[in-house]
Design brief:
By secondary structure, this protein is an alpha+beta fold. The protein has one domain: Penicillin V Acylase, Chain A, CATH 3.60.60.10. Helix content is 17%, strand content 36%. Strands 3-4-5-6-7-8-9 form a 7-stranded antiparallel beta sheet. The longest helix is centred in the middle third of the chain and has 15 residues, at 154-168. The protein starts with a strand and ends with a strand.
Length: 244
């Protein structure tokens, strides 16, 4: 249950990620900087699984994880591992080739189904779909935005969110200020279908923004406390970009 979109800019990109979660799940921990070898990265953490749903590093890569509900009913590993560890496994990668090679070679059978997104400073993308019995790799562009998933009426939710995106963000007018308005939009009469959503069992819990420029990777995080469509003041963490 998440919604992701991004737009290219002259020296990088800006990405937005709405995290939707069960109301039974613990609140996420705000983003913190980390170092692994010579690579810095920033990510929030899920205290229940110990992993993360979104990570950005000093190479300008952003890595995001979404549920793949359509495939979950057909595949249940006997001893499942947390999917949130996968962005951490890729945290030091320099480029999308490394991401693609990792998911081509690693044994994914212990993981429930998922979508894994990678985007680089040139705006190139990779999307890995893991359904339990197969994995597929694609390279989504603007016409596939937003990437969005839902456990509730998924076909209708995806259709409505994409239609709203097309109305609010024509292809030639994709810009961060338009994207954030989309990600913050909430229709009380169609709450479960909104990008900033609320249902009796789940809700959007945070909005993350990653901005990659020539000089830095900046992670901006807004929490949502309660069911009102109000987000907290932003918390920002930045790390210097490594030279290409």
């Amino acid at each position: 249950m998440c919604t992701v979109s991004w737009c290219r800019q002259s020296a990088g990109y800006t990405l937005f990620f709405n995290r939707d979660e069960s109301k039974r799940r613990s609140e996420g921990l705000p983003p913190q900087p980390h170092i692994s070898g010579s690579v810095a990265y920033v990510c929030p953490r899920d205290p229940d699984g110990g992993g993360t749903w979104l990570l950005a590093n000093s190479h300008g890569l952003t890595l995001g994880l979404l549920n793949y509900y359509e495939a979950q009913g057909g595949y249940r590993p006997k001893a499942p591992l947390s999917r949130g560890r996968l962005p951490l496994d890729c945290s030091t990668f320099c480029n999308l080739d490394e991401v693609e090679n990792f998911f081509t070679s690693v044994d994914l059978s212990p993981f429930p189904s998922f979508l894994f997104l990678g985007i680089d400073p040139a705006g190139r993308t990779v999307l890995i779909k893991w359904a339990g019995k197969w994995r597929r790799i694609s390279h989504p562009g603007f016409s596939q935005l937003p990437l969005t998933t839902s456990s509730f009426q998924p076909d209708v939710v995806v259709s409505e969110r994409r239609a709203k995106f097309r109305r609010q963000i024509p292809g030639l007018e994709c810009a961060p200020e338009r994207l954030i308005r989309y990600h913050r939009s909430h229709d009380p009469d169609r709450s479960a279908f909104s990008p900033l959503m609320t249902r009796p069992d789940a809700r959007t819990v945070s909005l993350s923004q990653v901005t990659v420029s020539r000089t830095e990777t900046r992670f901006t995080y807004r929490e949502r406390r309660g069911d009102f469509p109000i987000l907290s003041d932003p918390v920002s963490v930045s790390i210097p970009r490594k030279a290409p």
